[in-house]
Design a protein that fits this description.
With 246 residues, the chain is of the alpha/beta class. 36% of the residues lie in helices and 24% in strands. The chain folds into 2 domains: 1-75 and 153-167 and 180-246, Rossmann fold, CATH 3.40.50; 86-150, no CATH class. The strands form 2 sheets. It has a 6-stranded mixed beta sheet with strand order 6-7-8-3-9-10, sandwiched between helices. The chain has a 4-stranded antiparallel beta sheet with strand order 2-1-4-5, covered by helices on one side.
């Protein structure tokens, strides 16, 4: 398996926030994780990223044990809900930032950033400052900055939560396009039921620090705990099929 997480536990002030986290993920797949606020989703991501140290258990990425490695040595990128762009750098330089840190040759940086801007559908926006971009454009730049360094794993913490419904939908489909183009492996955390179903090749449900990963989407949909059946029932009652006959 590309990513293997085994028996990870994490507590704060004697409160166990992540309990026996145990799952695996193949390369170039997205595991979407549904859960309400306070269920331990963010702590889980930060533990895998190395931003929080696990109390016990192990994390393996590309057959390498990364459990005790510092965050900067794990080749994981953690993306918050906020885009967190550098306000003093234009879109081009924000995307180029990681490459410059790695001392990639200047010509190679220009080539790769221009190609990324095209993939992000941001042609003509490279010289604009973050405050001159829309929310969706800033989020694209944020993704570009993360993807261009070729991380092994992308950790997404409610990445579209701050966007309005229209921009959120466009970014969902846009991220799926990027995932295919750049062969991204990711964990996608959300509290939105429909987003979880749409974004994941696999789906998990997190409750009170415990994660259950389903064998397929049908198992997820038919489990009463996920809320999908309640959602279907709600819409069936609101818009009965008889209204659309004839």
């Amino acid at each position: 398996m590309f990513l293997e997480v085994k028996n990870i536990k994490k507590s704060f002030d004697r409160e166990e926030v992540v309990k026996n986290l145990d799952f695996s993920l193949d390369a170039h797949k997205t595991l979407s994780i549904l859960g309400e606020s306070g269920c331990g989703k963010t702590t889980m991501l930060k533990t895998i990223a190395g931003l929080v140290e696990a109390d016990s258990g192990s994390i393996s990425l590309e057959n390498k044990n990364i459990t005790r490695l510092k965050a900067e040595n794990r080749n994981c990128v953690y993306l918050y809900q906020e885009d967190l762009l550098f306000p003093h750098l234009n879109a081009f330089e924000n995307i180029a930032f990681g490459l410059r840190l790695k001392k990639v040759p200047k010509k190679e940086i220009v080539r790769r950033v221009k190609a990324m801007i095209e993939s992000l559908e941001l042609n003509g926006q490279g010289q604009k400052m973050p405050n001159q971009l829309s929310g969706g454009q800033r989020q694209r730049v944020s993704f570009g900055r993360a993807i261009i360094t070729n991380p092994s794993l992308l950790l997404l913490d409610e990445p579209f939560g701050s966007l309005d419904a229209g921009k959120r939908q466009r970014m969902q489909f846009f991220f799926k396009k990027l995932s295919e183009e750049f062969k991204i492996t990711s964990l996608f955390v959300t509290h939105d039921l429909k987003e979880a179903v749409l974004m994941g090749d696999e789906i998990g449900l997190m409750k009170e620090g415990r994660l259950q990963v389903y064998k397929d989407k049908n198992e997820f949909i038919t489990d009463p705990e996920t809320g999908v059946l309640d959602e279907i029932e709600f819409w069936d009652k609101l818009m009965p099929k008889e209204k659309f006959k004839g």
